[in-house]
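To fix ideas, we close by showing one paired sequence and structure record:
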Amino acid sequence: MFHVKQFQQITGANEETCKRLQLYSELLEKWHDKINLVGSKTLPDLWKRHMLDSAQLLPLLPRPECTILDFGSGAGFPGLVLAIMGKSHVTLVESDGRKCVFLAEAVRKTKVGSSVCVQNCRIEKLPNNKVDVVISRGLAPLEKLLILAERFLRSDSICLFLKGKQADEELAKSEKKWTMKTTRFQSQSDTSGTILKLENVMRRE
């Protein structure tokens, strides 16, 4: 089974970061009986299926200091993991109030409060603040994500979306209405997974 030491070897995370991620994982397991935060079958493989899956976005960020907007954060993947690993301008957007209570507690326990903002609302209700990076994991089809992301993107902003087996189909459908530079990365946590890095996203005329 994949554990914290393997996570550390792959990501290069230091001991302090791993301790904070360990606190986060313990809290998630404790709360999972009250709130369905992640799929129960994935809990035994938490460090690979969720921690590594999130952390693999770190080297794809455009620069060390960037503003990150995480759509549909749920239990905090991937945005909270990136914050714990040192990113300092992360906004977690989650419409489920119970999950936001968990996120607030996880932020407090891991002591990353100054780096993270938890927004308990629908994405459509967020103010139009431009960000460097929009991220999302398992929230919606790509075409819907692009519609949601559009008003937060500048010409130099990027999107990092974690996708599964439907990535090709979703991309082909989206390219009928959107132009963008697409770079694909094989997921390190799931052989059937893909990370889509989207740049210069624009709606077709």
Q: What stands out?
A: The mean pLDDT is 95. The first helix runs from residue 4 to 11. The first strand starts at residue 68 and ends at 71.
